[in-house]
């Protein structure tokens, strides 16, 4: 297991430059290589195109938590002084959009700096450990490339964001991003659908095809933790009331500390939808896991069998973030 530096306080009041700090992703191992998958989609009783999901023939690590606003801020400070490929969305700033994760940008192009909230210790603690949102699939791929490249500091180019686990080379259109595939030798990646699914639902009981319905080690519908708190089967989603309301909406990652997946991940149900590598309907990248908001069928979104949430890869949504895998 790797230990994380979840976020670090930035210099804010004197206008001093914000030096990027190392981001260390805490991971959990996912073993049992060669396990069988199971059917997900409409044929399994939910929604979406049918596919056998969850079979992975190698050991890998997956991030224990969703990528946080604090971690993404360090990424921006490392590579987005000039934000060539739009890694920052103004909607992240809650002064612009109430659903944002409160990453703020200051300065002018060529000298941009980024802080979580106002950058004070209190505000960083309030915002930095919640999942980042308003990130496109391309943003997530560039973050993975940056990890692959040792978190290099500098302009967005082949040594930072444009090559590594994925060859992006300035890809910004939907068509270009749909054509991107994981390269041989990739290390840090957006979780594949199978990696994501296995970490969330597989019972971790050997090389089996045994899966739970929900990513909290259960076939019973999770509660949303309001008002009773973590019951060991809790997730941040809307069930007629919010788990947590304004201004945060998203809980701190790992907030439901008794409600882990069988492999020890958190928030694979609720908080934010998470991008994966799958292509659905020929035009969109897949997402899994449900989110904090008012989805049409909120408990369906948490189900292993639900495979009908997706987005065009350039879009940035208020209820979508991502996690990463580390592969051999």
General description of the model:
- Mean pLDDT is 93; it is low at 1-17.
- The protein contains six helices and twelve strands.
- A four-stranded antiparallel β-sheet has the order 1-4-12-7. Strands 10-9-8-11 form a four-stranded mixed β-sheet.
- With 328 residues, it is of the alpha+beta class.
- A hairpin with a 3-residue loop joins strand 8 and strand 9.
- It starts with 26 loop residues before the first strand and ends with a strand.
Shape: globular
Helix percentage range: 10-25%
The topology string of helices and strands comes to EEEEHEEHHHEHEEHEEE
- Assembly level: single chain
Per DSSP, the total helix count is: 6
Number of strands: 12
Major sheet attributes: 4 strands, antiparallel
Strand line-up across the major sheet: 1-4-12-7
> Low-confidence stretches at least 5 residues in length (pLDDT < 50)?
1-17
Could you give the distance between the termini?
15 Å
Mean pLDDT: 93
Q: Structural class from helices and strands?
A: alpha+beta
What integer value in Å does the Rg equal?
Answer: 19 Å
* β-strand amount: 5-15%
